[in-house]
């Protein structure tokens, strides 16, 4: 391991300051162009070379000119003499804006100095001329500079979000989910929902790796430490919506137990976007075997490269639309519904391909009973896809999500009655396959059993149900029957007063439900607080799933060691960095560094002048007498 070099205050004469990494490594940073160099460059020869080659005495100011600078007390005039105020501001702004776009587009940091800046310089040279090219050349866009800019913007965004959380009039809602990246590293992602300026805001909170084990207590420690680090009490959380393994983030997991121990009254909800997994667990044996047959067929085609190539070539030859099959997966984003639909629609072609490859899956795949079961599964999962898609949006609250689930489950009795009468209208693929009463009787028994089990599981797993009658005023305070509210209910008078306002009625008809109640915080704080406590919790982990999709752009083979927590915050956060504040702070820091360099250089020059005076040889013409001759001999 190479020896680390140490910073010396004498290096300020080369217009450098010291930048210290988290591990204590000191790196020189030029205060004129913001370039950061490696620790190996922390030596006078390298620093002076950069100073002379890139800056040529700082626009005409060499160290000798520092003697003629204004006095120590006149700092502003000194900085003005360096020309920092306006020119440096433009360079910094351009640098920050590019770094922001780079993070938003999820591009690697090196794209600036390797592609964008060279292209921009060529364009400036051709279109605008050499003067514009020289100005553009000064914009700092190195890999380290872009990384530093993104870190600073991320911290500014995080600071804004934390300030909003502290200022929220209600406890915030948290959305928490876990995934594994390409390096098999478990990543925990969190979003937060809070009230800001009369509206509910959903914002990215953090994405941190679980370093060792992935138990519930590890998730809780990481979650709690984030709030402790930023000096926010965990009691600010009013609800947490989780998704993941039952042992880690399930409703009965260690994580939930730890959270409830710290915050006893917190509301814990589970993501409502998991009906596919629940349906699979309730499948009868015959239907489960049919699903597993589909999985084996897909793995046979996709799991072997030659089979996949032959499959694509075969479908291109016969002109079929779906030439590529998705891998079957437990996660909803590669939806079973889409896979089953594709398999059913391509049944004959896939059967031909399996015959051509002499696969042992042919017997099960071309079985008539299997195809009937496949048709039912394709229809059912298509219904589930439509249900999930209706809940995959921002702003989804638990009331709306449970209403959608409740409406879906209420269809089951109607489906069952139709199936008893051999009416398969709700299952079009299945209806297409049924050609005899015997087939209808066999499949009807399996479907009836499955839908009955599925209905009970939906009620138990998702707690499907509407609001109680006394709380339905939250959904519509104007049409709600006040007779359902007890006379002792303190907010009944507020409800009566609110209903009497025509202006508030107009607001209710034109605003979203959450925004309407946020707007009533001033006039009816108790009603607004009660309503928003029910509407605040997350119903799904949809935002986390979107974040995990962005994670795939950051964690690639070429960036596997990359710590992307700051980049992903800038990329997916809705909050815009306060560029003017960041640039102002940066300029102030640079101004202090420049003044420190000027001050140190003046002191160094002063000592050099004194040294010159002390050690200069005496003038022989003045060396008269015994004393003078002694001075001359002493110098010689």
TrEMBL record:
Domain of life: Eukaryota
Protein's UniProt name: Protein ZBED8 isoform X1
Organism: Ceratotherium simum simum (Southern white rhinoceros)
